[in-house]
Amino acid sequence: MNNSRVKLESFNARTGNTDLNASGTINNLIGFLFEDQKLKGNFKVSSDQFDTSDFMSTTTGSKEETITTENKSVATTNNEVIKIPDFLDAQLDFNANRVIYDNITLNDVSGIAMVRDETLFLNDLKTKVFNGTIGLDGTVSTKGTTPKFKMALNMNELDIAQSFQGFEMFQKLVPLINAFKGKLNTDLEIQGDLSNDLTPVLTTIAGDAFAQLLTDDVDTSQNKLLNLLDNKLGFIDVNDLNLRDITTKLKLNNGAVEIAPFDFNIKDIKVVASGKHSLSNSMDYILNLEVPAKYFGKEGASLLSKLESKEIDKITVPVPVKLGGSISSPSVDLNLDLAVKNLTNQIIEIQKQKLKDKGEEAANNAINDILQGNNPLDNIKDVIKGDKGQVKDSTQATSPVSTTTDSLKQNTKDKVKETAGNLIKDLFGRNKKKPVDTTKAK
């Protein structure tokens, strides 16, 4: 000891569930003891087990306050508030085999902690948890009436199931993740308020995240939305989700989580997902499915019969799927009208181009076929009649052939649209079965 400076050669202690071994210096012990100064120092601290609750003082408010409104008076009692000691101004180089924070156990923890002005500063903190690793820099402050936090986390290869069970925040940020088995990587920057026991108040959290899923399997029974989606889309199996390497960005603001568009596959069906959900678990998501024509199987044979295999291979039908409701009570709505319109237009455009390439004679033959009632599902012939009308001929205005073809054009197009509609509805209403690849017959 030299004046007010104390060198701590070795300090061993146990309190509550915590054991401590420390060495370092206390710079103003006399001022702290007798002059109400802050306790300053630098320490190296090690522990086999460190329980954070053993080092958080609590302030219990026993004063009853009365709040008067127009209609009634309400008596309130302050809750217990965990406070970081305001008398500390110290730096700790810290390592522990195990740290207990709330209901989470962290292993092999190391880093630098500075306590100053009722604020804990964490620098270069590293730990193993949930079969992965976390790096963290941030602050926790209990100064003022509302505790606050601000943190940047780097999480690598966390086990998805363990993370979902251990982190309440994960359950709110990514509520669908419990159906997946595998690993999670993410960079997360967040800030917000803390409750009196220093747990995050989820509705106040704001920030950004970059997430990567490395999944091995999907269990739809673990999630009501995925189970409903699996039943609603009869022609696919959600268990075939390919989420081996999915990356996306998340934005947290005003109690909502917005997810930037990202894509994945269900076998050879491409899906683009985007939308948002609230931290109270209401959802507003859109899945845009690109369904290959081969999934229409034999039901689509007549509609696709005029196309070559290579043309069929190029056709995909966009099907928007809206996910709404809540995580506990989800809803799935399909926009089949848009799918019908798109499929019809694609086939019309392909046949239109083919007949243009064949020339005027083929166009005339196509018109004659329609006038004779041949191939009523070959909707292209309606378009060709429109192209034929582009030839300037003063007789066309009163020609009975022109009048007839115009009428047939609309009738045939309506038939094609009706056929396409029945095809789409059958596709989404059928029981699960393996699709027949129509390209094999070509």
Automatic annotation (TrEMBL):
Name a single GO cellular component: plasma membrane
Its BP terms in the Gene Ontology are: regulation of protein targeting to membrane
Superkingdom field? Bacteria
Region span, Disordered? 388-416
Q: Where does the record place Polar residues bias?
A: 392-410
Q: Return the InterPro entries for the record.
A: AsmA-related (IPR052894)
Q: What is this protein called?
A: Outer membrane assembly protein
Organism, by scientific name, is: Nonlabens tegetincola
For this protein's source organism, the top of the classification is: Bacteria, Pseudomonadati, Bacteroidota, Flavobacteriia, Flavobacteriales
